[in-house]
Amino acid sequence: MDLDDTPDQAAWRTEVRQWLARHQSDAPPARGDFEDPAYVEVRRSWQRSLTEAGLVGVTWPEEHGGRGRGPVDQVIINQEMARAGVPGHLDVIGIGLMGPCIIAHGSDEQRARYLAPMLHGDEVWCQLFSEPAAGSDLAGVQTRAVEQADGSWRLTGQKVWTTSAQFAAFGMCLARTDPDAVKHQGLTMFIVPMDAPGITVRGLRQISGEAEFNEVFLDDVTVTDDMVVGGVRGGWKAALTVLMFERMMIGAGAETIGFRPDRVATALAAAGADDPRVCHRLGELTAELLAVRYGGFRSLTALSRGQIPGPEAGLAKITTVNALIAAADLVCDTLGPGALTDEEWGYMTSFLPGLKSAGGTEQILRTTIGERVLGLPAEPRVDKGVPFRELRTRQIAEVAA
Amino acid sequence: MDLDDTPDQAAWRTEVRQWLARHQSDAPPARGDFEDPAYVEVRRSWQRSLTEAGLVGVTWPEEHGGRGRGPVDQVIINQEMARAGVPGHLDVIGIGLMGPCIIAHGSDEQRARYLAPMLHGDEVWCQLFSEPAAGSDLAGVQTRAVEQADGSWRLTGQKVWTTSAQFAAFGMCLARTDPDAVKHQGLTMFIVPMDAPGITVRGLRQISGEAEFNEVFLDDVTVTDDMVVGGVRGGWKAALTVLMFERMMIGAGAETIGFRPDRVATALAAAGADDPRVCHRLGELTAELLAVRYGGFRSLTALSRGQIPGPEAGLAKITTVNALIAAADLVCDTLGPGALTDEEWGYMTSFLPGLKSAGGTEQILRTTIGERVLGLPAEPRVDKGVPFRELRTRQIAEVAA
Amino acid sequence: MNFALSDEQEFLREAARDALGRVATLAAARDALEDPAAILDLWPVAVKAGWPGLLISEPAGGAGLGTFDALLVAERLGAVLARVPFIGLMPATALLDRAAHPCLEAVATGERRPVFVPARPPVSGAESWTVEDGHGRSAPAPRVIRSGAHPRLDGQAAYVIDAPDADLLVVAATDATGSPVAAVVDAMQVQPVAAYDASRSVGHVTFDNVPAELLDVDSAELTDAWYLVQALIAAEAVGTVEAALGVSVSYAKDRYAFGRAIGSYQAVKHEIVEVLRRLENARALQFYAGWARDSRPAEFPLAASAARSVAGNALDFAARAMINVHGGIGATWEHDAPLVFRRAQLTRRLAGGHADATYRVGQAVLHNPRLVTAA
Amino acid sequence: MNFALSDEQEFLREAARDALGRVATLAAARDALEDPAAILDLWPVAVKAGWPGLLISEPAGGAGLGTFDALLVAERLGAVLARVPFIGLMPATALLDRAAHPCLEAVATGERRPVFVPARPPVSGAESWTVEDGHGRSAPAPRVIRSGAHPRLDGQAAYVIDAPDADLLVVAATDATGSPVAAVVDAMQVQPVAAYDASRSVGHVTFDNVPAELLDVDSAELTDAWYLVQALIAAEAVGTVEAALGVSVSYAKDRYAFGRAIGSYQAVKHEIVEVLRRLENARALQFYAGWARDSRPAEFPLAASAARSVAGNALDFAARAMINVHGGIGATWEHDAPLVFRRAQLTRRLAGGHADATYRVGQAVLHNPRLVTAA
């Protein structure tokens, strides 16, 4: 029971820290505007430097360009980057989720073609999963992929909540290839070049006014048959791998989602430290955030022993988002209306409500955890065993009602 | 828009107040032990005095011994009783719910036989609806009533959460007469003499240690066919009438369920008035209780115009119970552990959690309100249209799962 | 006992709804976040509806209506996030009317627009009258200086609702002894504040030893004006919550997930019902406040504070529930939910803030528990 | 990095579970509410398991284990509401061990049972060390008087956990300058308190100028002892929450309503998942506190306060959820839920109360935000 580095971890931390000490001055600012191609470009070249130093994809197997290290070593990189105040690699989605998916389900050709440019930031990836009518209910995706006589596929549909789409080279797209199958079984995963004819990317502005995400429209986009990942009708299985790696990213500690509780405390200390109400509210939310931090160390220990995190990893996200909402609320109550137009607190206030449903609503998460972790009985599923084609999303429920 | 009495209401208030001024000294203490027959007896004789003064069942039609007055006049009685610090009539269940049910669904003979002794407190009534496996899901009652060759019925089953059963003369019992019908349709309402052979009453102690309620066991209890209220298979309709009058009782303001917010404030003022945290928490719960009070006046206005309250009346109960839980919590936080063994605060702390599910859980209430008031779509009902006999409560869900 | 709207009140509310229904207020609230030029001037709508004269007595050219009526109009403004300078207007007209000020007729016709600059009355005797300092702290209310021939006003107040572009300000100030006085000025500096909620006009006002006219109103009337602001904010929030509830209910009926309308799921249903519960409570207190100011003035501070506390929390909850029910799409710029959210967040921090209102409820009953003795 | 139990720790936990599994602790907790004679004496169980010597160093006859281990035992005690005087015992043995007190061997063998009488360390420098006065207020800690040949102790403390029937008390007292000192006394008056939770032994202690022996421990060690109490209360609550969760989950699987197991309804399911969320958080902080006391002592006050705050709230929530999930039956005397509820309500108010712990977390980070800077 300790949080200190093992000798091996300590050596790794030193290696990372020393490299950063030498190259920190080349790093771009940690926050910037991804709508600005120049900023994307400096971040891309920073990723390239990190990759050349062996600091990207360290948990990937060595044969695929990684270093076969454990998740704690990745966390050490994250900690050292944060400590140095420099950003990590640009392509978080690719390195964290899409690469592992290709490693797990891709063909040898796909691995050979895509992994190295991904690692180097030459080709950034995005995730084309969610749709306007398939968010929490991901298996309900309606984007159609129809096979052509020459074996190629034509994709048509609309994706949403896509990070990095505006500068990504490829997207990993979950599409329906067999509408006669029941909903989870008729899906296939495709690699889609984002510059293919028929693709339109549109920024999706959030409450804050910033376009954190994009909508991606696919209008008869043709991809060749070698772009299928994990086989035709193997889409759901590939998607589950991605969701599992998503949980691992959470488990490895996205502790404060970019917001720093020490800054909250500092702001409050300057403004309202003498009010016991402020102190009490700060105490409540701080205790929750500390719980997430130390719960994260528990998850990370399990992860480093090869245990795959279950859906309960989502509890940390629920706690974090709600504690940060409480923090933003407290700061604004204490600092007054001016806090809302302050860059840091106004952004925090505006950003968090959207985060509540990112990656599935809090309610779906709770349902999943109740059923999978606690073994509570499932709700009656009216869509079970029904071919997707017949699952006219509206009608089935009306029949059941 | 005013809360002042109309001239007619003012005259009525004067009448009530004057009577009370003359008879107040005869009144029993407002709180006592209903396990003690002597206390029940003085309450019974107090009800008789009230009835002779025309102060019981004032909203009942005159032909049935009431005074045909509006609900506001009943509220005026309640207010004046509270003001004088004397208890109201003993048989709250009979006068408020069972009498109106007999008036609505009973035969002329039943009205002639039962209403007058009920009004005078000679025969107290209890409500035999809920069962261990049919609480929130009231239509799921399993108590069986089997018709005999001579037209009489034999009842067997177990009822629970029964107030006044230990000294009641009659119970209004919802039982299943037709297990082959779907669940709401096979029910019949019976009047059951509580001294009939086969009836056992057992006190059901709550967290506080007091037996607020009873369990009632019916073991082959015979009742004659003239005890059916509202016809065979008319039980659910009669039960709905009772539930509606229950809502009217709430709507007419069971504002604080016996706990007085002014006493909470007084206790806190003596102990912790200087702490802004106490003040804030007291402010929050007081505002909620004030909302219930003035919302009650809105309901009462509607009621006095002949509008029947909908399920939204339950929102007032939800608010009240939760605000009082917050009040008990605040008092105990402020006064320390000693408050828990204090008669008033310890009792309040212990009493309230049970109240949350009294009359259906808070969750069922919210579901009903969502569907009936806001028109939100119903949950899939797996028990719909299924004969009760086949509704082996366990199996059906397993099939559906 | 009659705790329901009269026919005239129903009519007033409908008329307000109609008048506002002809303007695309929500689109304007969104557009104005980026482009101040997109702000709609709704003053002509208000004037046409006769709102400036609502609380002004009939002889002075007003409609002579009551607090309850004013709250009904505020509720309708809240329902469509209309940028009408109503919260600043009503207390100003009430004070001018009490003082029988000569400008009343011009005010009632909408020719001159007065705005109230509120100051917080002290909770206990030891405290003083305060305003916002712009950083979440209290500052002394502006001071009236009587040294010269004419009284002059000096000081400032931050985040004053509706202050930008007003024709005259009715200022809750204090005199040399700290006693409250009402000062009317028309020579003020108002610095409009880029607001988080563009459907609300807010500004910092500075009085640099400017000439002021003192109104013949007393401390109780200035206290009342503060609580009137609280009640108006509450009523406005009630309208917003009602609108948010309506949108959430519709969406929950229409949107399907896992083969069912999402409103059939308990989690969604119960969250929406919680909005309803809070709405009903807030409305009950709106009624209480509206009735109390005219019929039980001693209870008005409690009623107005309770109304603001409950309505403010209801609005915050309703805005977040609206976003939650809509899933990710509810948090996007094009949706109306963020406008409700912005309204909730800014308004909770104005005019003393919702926490101050809650605190005042607690203080009131701690000092006088009889206020909550069952009637 | 390794933030998991060692095999030895797993074994210790299992052994505690086994030892307690042989006693009908819940039935005793219920019966004792009515009949104090029904109280089970679990001290022999504790002695047999070696718990008195858990924190006593090996040369002095103890097991020389760490804080983390003590918290694991507390967790198991909480799971079955066992009336073992463990919370009072651990800090007492820790202080006696620091001072290498001659009674240690008798303590380790269970022959003599010491109990700690805690005093709240001041949050800021201007405050003093305090105890409960029995009415929810603070009173000065007992005072050590050094005027005569031998030190004497005077004063009182209310609601001291585990005090009844103790053989000696280790008292956090103050000297004439207000500095904290630890005094050992065996001539005390302890008035047992009829407790709301009969599974917990509580008493008021009075020291009427009694002879006292001073321990050679410093202010930091007495501060640490206060926070050790907090951490023990937290760990105990973790065990209770885990047990309550288990019962709630089973019932939600078995009980049917409207033709479905009630656990299939979102409202029930999500409430139970909320218990899990709070349990996981409380357990993470139990780990933090257990680790910090031995490895990062400067963070221990923060860790212990956070653990108590989160675990106390988790227990209150879990107890109420357990009642809710069970419907009416969960609020009846025969059910176990009321026992959990009583435990939650009483314990939240002991040893400073959960609100004080929360407040201390806030104070700690306000004064030193770096405590929550990402590692």
Report on this structure.
The complex is a heterotetramer, with two copies of chain A (401 residues) and two copies of chain C (375 residues). The longest helix of chain A is centred in the C-terminal third of the chain and has 29 residues, at 276-304. By secondary structure, chain A is an alpha+beta fold. Helices cover 47% and strands 13% of the residues of chain A. In chain A, a hairpin with an 8-residue loop joins strand 6 (199-204) and strand 7. Mean pLDDT of chain A is 90; it is low at 393-401. Chain C has 375 residues and is of the alpha+beta class. Chain C has a domain at 221-374: Butyryl-CoA Dehydrogenase, subunit A, domain 3 (Up-down Bundle). Chain C has a four-stranded mixed beta sheet. Chain C has a four-stranded antiparallel beta sheet with strand order 4-5-9-8, with no helix packed on it. The mean pLDDT of chain C is 95. At the A-D interface, helix 3, helix 7, helix 8, helix 9 and helix 12 of A face helix 7, strand 12, helix 8, helix 9 and helix 11 of D.
Overall outline of chain A: globular
What's the multimeric state? Answer: heterotetramer
Mean pLDDT of chain C: 95
Spatial arrangement of strands, main beta sheet of chain A: 1-4-5-8
Structural category of chain A is alpha+beta
Rounded mean pLDDT of chain A is: 90
**Strand pairing plus helix content of chain C: what structural class?**
alpha+beta
The CATH homologous superfamily of the domain at 221-374 in chain C is called Butyryl-CoA Dehydrogenase, subunit A, domain 3
- Helical stretch count of chain A? 13
**Largest interface summary:** A-D, 64 and 62 residues
Radius of gyration of chain A: 22 Å
* Count of strand segments of chain C: 12
Give the proportion of residues in helices of chain A.
40-55%
